[in-house]
Design a protein that fits this description.
- It is a single chain.
- By secondary structure, the protein is mostly beta strands.
- Helices cover 1% and strands 42% of the residues.
- Strands 12, 13, 14, 15 and 16 form a five-stranded antiparallel sheet that branches.
């Protein structure tokens, strides 16, 4: 999603046997596939919670709950549970995309929620991961220019970093050290993470400016792993790769195994823009979206795949996916 490509996105969603959008006719219908694009998952108290981009009215983010990642239901007694909704103490009135939960265990257990609205990244807060998330001062993180797809990361030294996408004849992932007290990027710390350099990152199946987006960062054995998506989201070759660095600011080295999620691997078009999470055993998963079918982009469907991690001779994890374990989550 980029500055010149974002505007049509919300018009792409249509109801075709999916839940995740607020279908006023029948939101809860057993067996329906879930259609959260740009999905993210948080694990709390032995359960998983899922949200993402959806065609919701009013604008905002709804949530589903699961114990096994396969079947999901609304956590409350209502037909739709909003964790953030357009209105008072909420920034934005259009284009609510790409959310992320962030639980700051080192910061008193506060729960934050980053998202995009009006092509601006936003940080809201709530007492629990179920929301409702609000802002004391209603504003974007950095209103000086448009930026999307935020991902908040806390390093083991206590420093915070905000990964996000900025525009310059395309979409590129940037990082800046983040001031959690002021809720803003520290001046002078912004740095671009990656350039579009690989053939798989810009294929001819959908012509666009370079697009690199949907960042997620994890740390394993003192090394940082940046997962990202490349190509336009309408491209059947929308895909996921990763890069590594010894610092959260980079420089980043792309994996020779890229892409790790692609239509040739997972057998569905438009596979990308998700998040990494673990189950109670510490097993890693990646939640992402795919196109509705071989001929239609929307509504984009949610998928979950186990990650396989094998440490190589250099002490770096080679990451791939277990295609035999792909989950197509459904509404219970």
């Amino acid at each position: 999603m980029g500055k010149i490509f974002l505007l049509p996105v919300m018009g792409l969603f249509a109801l075709c046997g999916c839940v995740g959008q607020a279908d006023k006719r029948n939101f809860v219908e057993e067996g329906k596939e879930i259609c959260f694009a740009d999905p993210t998952v948080i694990r709390e108290n032995g359960k998983f919670y899922l949200t993402g981009t959806g065609d919701n009215h009013p604008q905002g983010f709804t949530m589903l709950e699961s114990e096994d990642l396969k079947t999901w239901h609304v956590a409350s007694g209502d037909s739709v549970q909003y964790i953030l909704k357009e209105g008072e103490q909420v920034f934005g009135d259009k284009g609510f995309w790409a959310p992320q939960w962030f639980k700051d265990d080192a910061g008193g257990g506060k729960v934050y929620f980053t998202y995009t609205a009006n092509e601006q990244t936003v940080l809201a807060e709530a007492a629990t991961w179920q929301g409702p998330f609000r802002q004391d001062e209603v504003k974007p993180i950095d209103g000086s220019e448009k930026n999307i797809d935020s991902y908040l990361f806390r390093d083991t030294d206590g420093r915070y970093y905000l990964y996000h996408v900025r525009f310059n004849r395309g979409n590129y992932i940037w990082v800046g050290e983040f001031d959690m007290q002021k809720k803003e990027i520290k001046p002078g710390t912004l740095r671009q993470c990656l350039d579009c350099t690989e053939a798989w990152e810009r294929t001819s199946n959908y012509i666009s400016d370079p697009i690199m987006e949907g960042p997620t960062v994890i740390k394993m054995d003192s090394l940082y792993y940046l997962f990202y998506s490349a190509n336009h989201f309408m491209n059947i070759d929308y895909a996921v790769g990763y890069a590594t660095a010894s610092s959260p600011m980079g420089p980043w080295k792309k994996s020779a195994n890229n892409p790790i999620i692609h239509r040739d691997i997972v057998k569905e078009n438009g596979s990308g823009h998700g998040d990494v999470f673990t189950d109670d055993t510490g097993k890693y998963f990646y939640v992402y979206h795919v196109h509705a079918s071989d001929t239609a982009v929307s509504p984009r469907k949610t998928r979950i795949v186990p990650l396989l991690m094998e440490k190589n001779k250099d002490g770096v994890y080679d990451i791939s996916v277990d295609t035999n374990g792909i989950i197509k989550p459904k509404q219970k």
